[in-house]
Amino acid sequence: MKARTWRVGVFLMAVAAGWLGLAAPSRADEVPEEYRETVRKGLEYLKKTQAKDGHWAAQGDQHPIAMTGLATIALMAEGSTIRQGKYANEIRRAVDWMMDRSQRGQRDGLIGDTNNPAEAGRYMYGHGFALTALALAYGEEEDRDRQERLKDILTRAAKYIGNAQSTQGGWFYTSAKDGHDQDEGSVTVTQMQALRACKNAGIPVSKAIVKKGYDYLKNSTTPRGGVVYSLGRGGAGMGAPAGGERPALTAAAIACLFSAGEYKDELIKKWFKYSQTAIPIGRGGGIRMGHDEYTHFYWAQACYFLGEDGWEKMFPNSPANEKVTWSAYRRDMFDNLKRTQTGDGSWPSGGGFSVGPVYSTAIYCTIMQLDLGTLPVFQR
User: Given a cut of 50, is residue 74 above it in pLDDT?
Assistant: First the structure.
């Protein structure tokens, strides 16, 4: 990891750990040796499936913005940057492609092509993932002209997220400014994490926008501690409907709490408690469930942040069989991933929702490289 990225990462880890009362690690760890070949094969699959112009896509060239953002994040998690490393060439081509798409949309600040039928109805997903990837790449750009161009793209893209926010405080597949004043939890999470990545990169981010997003997630939480799919669909002012909790969204909300800087909020305990009962991995369970990839993309981050003693600090004297730790999650999850990886290095589509092996492989490679601590947005 480059010195600049390391210094930023150590600072963010120390601050966040201090807020939660956890011990900040002094250095990044390594991917356990028994899983390194699994990761290598997954990254090589992404390398060989990148299109000549630098993008990735799902089957039938679907969701190119989102897939390119996620695949780029997975390659950067290895430690490569746009300047150096094993996957520098692939990262730079992907960054160039995403930068170009920021100029193609008909809406100022949007990273995406609304003229593309594959993107027009769900462009906020792609915008969020691409913005996260570009924000992570920004600090390693040394060419002054490109750096200024990237800064402009990031600044306008972050502002676009603010303008796209619904009156409820969440986000939808398309912007509220386009007349779609609705909300959906998974899109909300994507925008919140993109804003965090921008803030980490030094790009101005409105505190009011982040606070509204946090309040949205708070209002979307049921008494059981789970987050529902959509607050707006429950009726304005009615709160989260009982029985509509989604494990995937609850795990994702934990990551958003970190994004909002509300590290001492009691909500994090409610979300963790609900997720602990709804997501069995780490206590002898398997990985198969609805929305596999999406759920674990965020639940893995939550478990990684907890480390080995975070759960005990939040819930003193918990029974051993109820504790959530990174090592237990990693053992179950990584063993399953090693076993289910296909011969070409990819993973098959998950349960409930998936868009193909690029999506699955990008997410699982990112999860398996969390120990490297290379990307500030995913660090302890």
Answer: yes
**Please, what is the end-to-end C-alpha distance for the chain in angstroms?**
16
The dihedral built from the CA positions of residue 96, 42, 336 and 22, taken in this order, carries a sign that is negative
CATH of the domain at 347: 1.50.10.20
Could you tell me the two tokens for 245?
A: 């909790």
Mean pLDDT, the chain, whole residue set: 84
Two tokens at 221?
């939480």
pLDDT digits (tens, 9 = 90+) for 168-206: 999 999 999 888 899 998 899 999 999 999 999 999 999
Q: What is the C-alpha separation between 272 and 20, in angstroms, rounded?
A: 14
Q: How many CB atoms lie within 10 A of CB 94?
A: 30
Residue 340 — φ and ψ, nearest 5°? Answer: -95, -5
| H/E element, 200 | helix 185-200
**How many of the other CB atoms lie within 10 Å of CB of 223?**
10
**CA distances, 2 to each of 6, 7, 84, 140 (Å):** 6, 9, 10, 9
| pLDDT above 70 (res 234) | no
Q: How far is CA 231 from CA 168, 221, 341, in A?
A: 8, 9, 37
The DSSP letter of residue 376 is G
Residue with structure tokens 């490569």? 80
| pTM recorded for the entire structure | 0.88
Q: Which domain holds residue 303?
A: 3-370
Distance set, CA 305 to CA 17, 117, 254, 292 (Å): 9, 38, 10, 20
Strand partners, 246: 227
What does the pLDDT look like over 253-263, one tens digit per residue? Answer: 997 776 555 55
Residue 353, judged by CB atoms within 10 A of its CB (0-12, 13-18, 19+), counts as middle
Q: Does some domain include residue 376?
A: no
Q: How many helices (H) and strands (E) does the chain have?
A: 15, 2
Residue 237 lies in a domain: yes
Residue 380 belongs to a domain: no
> How many domains is the chain built from?
1
Let me know if residue 379 belongs to a domain: no
State how far the Cα of 125 lies from the Cα of 6, in Å rounded to an integer. 29
The interaxial angle of helices 326-340 and 357-368, nearest 10 deg, is 140
Mean local confidence (pLDDT), 117-137: 92
